[in-house]
Amino acid sequence: MDKLIIEGKARLKGEVSVSGAKNSVLPILAATLLTDEECRIENCPNLRDTHTMIKLLRSLGKNAELNKNTITVTSKGKTNYIADYKLVSTMRGSFCVLGPLLAKLKMARVSLPGGCIIGVRPVDLHLKGMRALGAKINVQGGYVEAKANSLKGNHIYLGGIFGSSVLATANVMMAASLAKGKTTIESAACEPELVDLANFLNKMGAKIKGQGSPKLEIEGVKELHGTEYNVIPDRIEAGTFLILSAITRGDITIKDVCWEHLSAIIDKLEEAGFVIEKTDPPDCRAGCKIQLRVKRKINPVNVTTLPYPGFPTDLQSQFMTLMAVTPGVSVITEKVFPDRFIHIAELNRMGAKIMREGASAIIEGVKQLSAAPVMASDLRASAALVLAGLVAKGRTEISRIYHLERGYENLDEKLTNLGARVWREKE
Length: 427
Description:
Layout: E1 2-7, E2 13-17, H1 22-31, E3 39-42, H2 48-59, E4 62-67, E5 70-75, E6 82-83, H3 85-88, H4 98-105, E7 107-111, H5 124-132, E8 136-140, E9 143-147, E10 155-157, H6 166-176, E11 182-186, H7 192-203, E12 207-209, E13 215-219, E14 228-230, H8 235-247, E15 251-255, H9 263-272, E16 275-278, E17 289-293, E18 303-305, H10 316-324, E19 329-334, H11 343-349, E20 353-357, E21 360-364, E22 373-375, H12 379-391, E23 395-399, H13 402-405, H14 411-417, E24 421-426
Parallel strand pairs: 2-15, 3-14, 6-7, 10-11, 18-19, 22-23
Antiparallel strand pairs: 1-23, 1-24, 3-5, 4-5, 7-9, 8-9, 11-13, 12-13, 15-17, 16-17, 19-21, 20-21
């Protein structure tokens, strides 16, 4: 197991390219279970989670090969309906094989999911959607067992106590693509990654309308065919690099980005006093660029995380690190995962002044963070610790960086190319 070593206080500059969206490629790969024909997925990030999904597809009866950043998926013949605990328990995104397996095989046995420890994330909305389509659901022994003689379209409300669910929307949308009749999903998630999934399914022959809005309409079809598809850029990686440029007072040009997906984070950075320059058009696949410039005075700002198009919960910890070294007091309120504050203790170890009050964190900015040995608790918290290490005085050691490898492709290499002093050592 490796740890990441960071020598702080380096001003970063240069260009960096954003990889394909992790939260797009995982459900898109799951959707390949809906067809026996070949699918070719391009711009796939080479991540630990990507490899986990490839292993899961292979265990379910698919050939899946990653060549550079392209994954080719073909059928080996009979598809297995059991998604094993050993794979699903390590990554929550793998639970989205439930819908495709149920739609294609009329049965599925999928382990309850795992992933980052960022609070309770139940699967009740997934099961509600499958039941509404006609499936019989039984949960026992840590597995969800689903069966249906045939799936039938229905009108489904998928709102939860914390708003819409991205994975539940994906699961129901995929299952409904092969259901008989029309399915309407109300309170559907609107994230760009779900739009990406819907566009992929439509290229396979699905009939989905309304993607990107809270109301999805899916007209079921008899079968789906293979296709080629290019995954959108990762908006969370792009947002992380924007905050990275801001916190190091750097001069970084971020390439291959769709800045329309970053409206909420751009708005808060501009409110703080940073200047954002964007190239047109904002098309996800047009090779757009975005650059952040620093004014002399930076102000603290308050943030509330919300489902898209609100401020993303996946950038909360990174933005908190920026506020930790911004003079003044700011408040960050977490409305998506109210317990997603494990990183506060580690940031405070480095000299930050952050106090939690329920679902909010009160941050009093300090002039300087100090290097310390810290431990990554989840994917985005690990990115926050990297940001902290880059501006801290001294040498920071971050252990358990396998969390980082789940969502950031070649991050240490990208940082080094920008002028950071970063390297790996064995723990």
